[in-house]
Amino acid sequence: CELCDIEFNGKKDLRCHVRKHTLERPFKCLLCDAIFTSRQVLKRHIFSHTGEKPFECEICKAEFNRKEHLQSHLQIHSGEKPFKCKFCNAKFTLKRHLERHKQIHTGQKPFDCEQCSAKFTSKYNLDRHKLIHTGEKPFKCEICDAKFSEKSHLQKHMKVHTGERPFNCNLCDAKFSVKYHLERHLLIHTGEKPFKCELCNASFNVNSRLKIHRRDHVEKPVHH
C-alpha cells in the first residue's frame, strides 16, 4: 500500500484495503442503508438480516454467522488459550479478552460517561453504568413484577422462586442462593469481623450490624 506500510499477497486484498484510506464503499446492502468496502463484508452483513448461521460447531452444534466466530468458539473445546498477557501469566482464548484484561495493568479506561466523571475499561461496563442515570431496568422477572438493571441481579432473584441454593457451607449444613451470603455466613465459623467502627474499637462480621452500631454514636457521641 502506497499510503501505509502494509503489504498484501494479492491485488484484490490491496484494493479492499485502499478503500479504508479513500473511504470508498461501493457495496450497498439492499435491505438497509449500510455500505461496505468489499463484497465479502457485505455478504457477512446480510446474515444479520436473514438470521442465517452457516458455520456449525461439530462438537456441540452451536451455530455462527462468521467463520472466525466459529474458530474462536472451538478454542473453548480445545482449551487452547493462545493470547498471553505480557504483564502476568493470564491467558485467553480471544484477543479482545486479552485487550480488555491488559487495561487492569495499564489503568486505561477509554469509555467515559457523558453524564458524570465515571470511566470504564469496556463499553459493556459503561452501558451498564448508564442505567443508573436513566433508571432503566430492562431485565424483568417473568414470575413476579420485579425488574432489574443487570441480568446477574435477575438471575439471583430467580433463585427466590426456584428455591435453588447451590452454595453449600463445608463446615455445616447451611445452604445459600447467593455466593455472597455464603461468604458472609463463613465469618461465623472463622470468627472474623472485618467491619470495624472508625469511632471505637467495635468490629462486626456483617456490615448491617456496623451501620446499626454507628447510630449509637449519633445518639450518644463518643467523648475523648
From TrEMBL:
PROSITE patterns: ZINC_FINGER_C2H2_1, ZINC_FINGER_C2H2_2. It is found in: Nucleus. GO terms for cellular component: nucleus. Residues 1-26, 27-54, 55-82, 83-110, 111-138, 139-166, 167-194, 195-222 form the C2H2-type domain. Keywords: DNA-binding, Metal-binding, Nucleus, Repeat, Transcription, Transcription regulation, Zinc, Zinc-finger. It comes from the Eukaryota. One of its GO terms (molecular function) is RNA polymerase II cis-regulatory region sequence-specific DNA binding. Pfam families: zf-C2H2, zf-C2H2_11, zf-met. SUPFAM superfamilies: beta-beta-alpha zinc fingers. Belongs to the krueppel C2H2-type zinc-finger protein family. This is C2H2-type domain-containing protein.
